[in-house]
Design goal:
- The protein is α+β, with helices and mostly antiparallel strands.
- The protein folds into two domains: about 240 residues, Bira Bifunctional Protein, Domain 2 (BirA Bifunctional Protein, domain 2), CATH 3.30.930; about 90 residues, Anticodon-binding domain (Rossmann fold, 3-Layer(aba) Sandwich).
- The chain is built from 15 helices and 16 strands.
- The strands form three sheets. An eight-stranded mixed sheet has the order 1-5-6-11-10-9-7-8.
- Helix 1 packs antiparallel against helix 5, helix 2 crosses helix 4 and helix 5 runs parallel beside helix 9.
- The chain starts with about 25 loop residues before the first helix and ends with a helix.
- The chain binds adenosine-5'-triphosphate (ATP) and magnesium ion.
């Protein structure tokens, strides 16, 4: 074949794919659940461009992060500017928030987004070069309850889809002062192990040692096991915040585990960080993740407002649904399928079908005359509940033949009564 889909990307199709999580019906159902839950928690949709100036992500995601050092799709536009396909959503939301001075429009702002993200990764199950995220950001509230609200929202989203038994792993990366103390202790601990660390972690040792805790390298993980815990280096403010988040979660009945190795891949986090983990996806076990990032807006030249959010990968959500055989198929609206026999019937049917569509009845029509049995089989294949047959006899009598394709019952009805009858049958 001459043209093929780029590596690490996939098509979402209405049918014809063996990978069930790529069926567009499923995506629509999940997207509807997202819009519904966002409304229930009063988060409003924000849509930002798919590409931004590269500098935004250098700053927002962090120059030492895996995303910036290895994963970005960066290109020069025809005007010589460096642009990057967005690898994540938060940086763009913060940019838009500042650019449109939304901070003037209220004390607390809650946003959600759904959309594709781009990362140049080694493609494998659950890891793609284009993936989709549902994310939320709550800006303006420093309260630990806000962290809990965001975490609870994410858990409720999974619960509503029928995904149970996920574990929330939560940690705090403290405030600047806590991290300063912790970093010193961590460096002390890691120094003798430096030659055994992965090359990536050796670089991190210089630039961003906390990240070593997050390393996926098995040897690094072994070394890090006995590293000091940030929980012993918290300032009292950071400790109080963390304890309040945990007690709010308890009050909301969210099961969680404290995991002092979580630091998250992005540079901007402070205080709360969390990951929601599943055992259904093999190596790609994190289904959603987030945290608090109080300093980010200021770093971008905006007001010094606190913020907390999460992002969850929709491919991974859908794969868990499939793995757990959770059925999300929505009951489709009954489809009416018009079968004209002959040229004149064709014109007549086209008008009738259009009237049905205007009345909100899902309708399809075949634009050619085929043998009646073949046409009925085609109608069944499209999933139609009813078909309307119009042949020479019906034309003469001003009637149509209405057939229920499931029961095979059929009745002759007056053409003028068809719309009323179909409305009745399809409950419009
Ligand atoms: P990982 O540790 O798996 O690389 P990450 O820390 O890079 O994840 P985030 O930047 O927090 O992930 O992105 C939020 C969510 O988006 C992840 O929890 C995951 O569900 C999803 N995600 C991230 N990268 C990919 C990818 N390449 N393909 C599919 N989903 C992804
Ligand atoms: Mg990653």
């Amino acid at each position: 074949m001459e043209h093929q889909i780029p590596k690490g990307t996939f098509d979402i199709l209405p049918y014809g794919t063996e990978e069930l999580w790529r069926l567009s019906d499923l995506w629509q159902t999940v997207e509807e659940a997202i819009r519904r839950i966002a409304t229930d928690y009063n988060y409003r949709e924000i849509r930002t461009p798919m590409f931004e100036s590269t500098a935004l992500f250098d700053r927002g995601v962090g120059e030492t992060s895996d995303i910036v050092t290895k994963e970005m799709f960066t290109f020069q536009d025809r005007g010589g500017r460096s642009m990057t396909l967005r690898p994540e959503g938060t940086s763009s939301v913060m940019r838009a928030f500042i650019e449109h001075r939304l901070f003037n429009l209220g004390p607390v702002h809650k946003f959600f987004y759904i959309g594709p993200m781009f990362r140049y990764e080694r493609p494998q199950s659950g890891r793609y070069r284009q993936h989709h995220q549902f994310g939320v950001e709550a800006i303006g509230s420093p309260h630990p309850e806000q962290d809990a609200e965001v975490i609870e929202l994410l858990c409720q989203f999974y619960t509503r889809l029928g995904i149970k038994n996920l574990v929330v792993h939560i940690n705090t990366v403290g405030d600047v002062e806590s991290r300063l103390h912790f970093k010193a202790a961590l460096l002390d601990y890691l120094k003798p192990h430096l030659p055994e660390l992965s090359t990536d972690s050796q670089t991190r040792f210089e630039k961003n040692p906390l990240r070593i805790l997050d390393s996926k390298d098995p040897k690094d993980r072994e070394i890090v096991k006995n590293a000091p815990s940030i929980l012993n280096y918290l300032t009292s403010a950071a400790r109080t915040h963390f304890e309040s988040v945990c007690s709010s979660l308890q009050a909301l009945n969210i099961a969680f585990a404290i995991d002092d190795k979580i630091v998250r891949g992005l540079d901007y986090y402070n205080k709360t960080v969390f990951e929601v983990i599943t055992t259904d996806l093999g190596a790609q076990g994190t289904i959603g993740a987030g945290g608090r990032f109080d300093g980010l807006l200021k770093t971008f030249g905006g007001p010094d407002l606190p913020a907390v959010g999460f992002a969850t990968g929709l491919e991974r959500v859908l794969q868990v649904l499939i793995a757990r055989q959770i059925s999300l198929t929505k009951s489709p609206r009954p489809l009416v399928y018009f079968i004209p026999m002959g040229e004149e019937a064709q014109k007549e049917c086209f008008v009738l079908a259009t009237l049905c569509r205007h009345a909100g009845i899902a309708t399809d029509i075949r634009f050619e005359t085929k043998k009646i049995q073949t046409a009925i089989l085609d109608a069944v294949k499209t999933g139609a509940h009813y078909c309307v047959i119009l042949g020479a006899n019906e034309l003469k009598d001003n009637t149509v033949l209405l057939k229920n394709l499931q029961t095979r019952d059929q009745q002759v009805i007056q053409k003028d009564h068809l719309l009323t009858k179909l409305k009745e049958l399809t409950h419009v």
